[in-house]
TrEMBL record:
Example GO molecular function: cyclic-guanylate-specific phosphodiesterase activity
Pfam family name, one: EAL
Domain named EAL: residues: 12-266
InterPro entries to which the protein is assigned, alphabetical: Cyclic-di-GMP_PDE-like (IPR050706), EAL_dom (IPR001633), EAL_sf (IPR035919)
High-level lineage: Bacteria, Bacillati, Bacillota, Bacilli, Bacillales
Organism: Tepidibacillus fermentans
Protein name per Swiss-Prot or TrEMBL: EAL domain-containing protein (Putative c-di-GMP-specific phosphodiesterase class I)
Domain of life: Bacteria
């Protein structure tokens, strides 16, 4: 596991060194992946997914640089940049007439630990004039953090402004269930990992069915991620999962393609 080739090590070093300046150099872009309500077939929102167009390395996926941004602390500035960019662009989509599109933004647990996090979010909503009811913050669990009183207070404060809070990668994270118990999430997003080969894979099918039921019983919005096939969709409809996201509906798309996607009729 810990054995990296020389090239991989060099690549990591370049990425680490360049991260700091990539924001000012305007090398990041936000892609958007739509979410759909399976009953109404309406697009309920889009998730903001960051990409890095590196001048020499080309497109770098977030799984490669987000952990490094967390390690170096750049994640705070980067997270702020994404939130501002996504809020701006969704606000402009609202102006274009798609006024009920929600924006989901990924938040690193490290950002949530920043003392000024809530203030930062408030400031960006004021700057961009985005209605807080259309903002949804997805909290990922890639880092072992204890849900302490401080985090709980911040989440409550954000929710009192009208912002929604989602648990990302539901089912995979570090002590998912105790987080679900301790923090007042509005939504759970079932990780795409569990959708693999559903319904043929009985274990995965059982896990997905159970996670949907758990979310429903806790009165949470339930979103299934990584939906790629019609068979998965039918299974989810049958198990009464309300919303889906995945390649079946659309891959993440650049902002300039979002409007035409929203205008198009959804057919599978
Ligand atoms: P995530 O938040 O769980 O996002 C879902 C990932 O699954 C995305 O990968 C998306 O492109 C991919 N995906 C969507 N539908 C399908 C599908 O049907 N099949 C498959 N195989 N994959 C699908 P992406 O964009 O590479 O992002 C990877 C991860 O990087 C995200 O996982 C998230 O944890 C992190 N990330 C992305 N953008 C940000 C950001 O702005 N801030 C933070 N903190 N993390 C981010
Ligand atoms: Ca996410
Ligand atoms: Ca996820
Ligand atoms: Ca994930």
């Amino acid at each position: 596991m810990e054995h990296y080739s020389e090239d991989a090590v060099r690549r990591q070093h370049i990425i680490m060194a360049d991260l700091l300046h990539a924001i000012e150099r305007d090398e990041f872009v936000v892609y958007y992946q739509p979410l759909m309500n399976v009953t109404t077939k309406q697009i309920t929102g889009v998730e903001a997914l960051i990409r890095w167009q590196h001048p020499t390395l080309g497109m770098i996926p977030p799984v490669e640089f987000i952990p490094l941004a967390e390690k170096t602390g750049v994640i705070n500035e980067l997270g702020k940049w994404v939130l501002r960019k996504a809020s701006e662009q969704i606000k402009s989509i609202h102006y274009e007439g798609f006024s009920d599109i929600r924006i989901m933004v990924n938040i690193s647990p490290l950002q949530l630990q920043e003392p000024n996090f809530v203030e930062m979010v408030k400031q960006i909503l004021e700057e961009t004039q985005l209605d807080p009811h259309y903002l949804d913050l997805e909290i990922t669990e890639n880092i072992e953090t204890q849900p302490n009183q401080n985090i709980l207070k911040k989440i409550r404060e954000l929710q009192s402004m009208g912002i929604q809070i989602s648990m990302d990668d539901f089912g995979t994270g570090y002590s998912s269930l105790s987080k679900l118990r301790d923090l007042p999430f509005d939504t759970v997003k079932i990780d795409g990992l569990f959708l693999q080969n559903v319904p043929i894979n009985k274990k995965n099918a059982t896990i997905v069915e159970t996670l949907v039921a758990l979310g429903e019983k806790l009165n949470l919005r339930v979103v299934a991620e990584g939906v790629e096939t019609k068979e998965q969709l039918n299974f989810l409809i049958d198990k009464r999962c309300q919303e889906i996201q995945g390649y079946l509906l659309s891959k993440p798309i650049p902002f300039n393609k979002l409007k035409s996607f929203l205008k198009s009729k959804i057919v599978f």
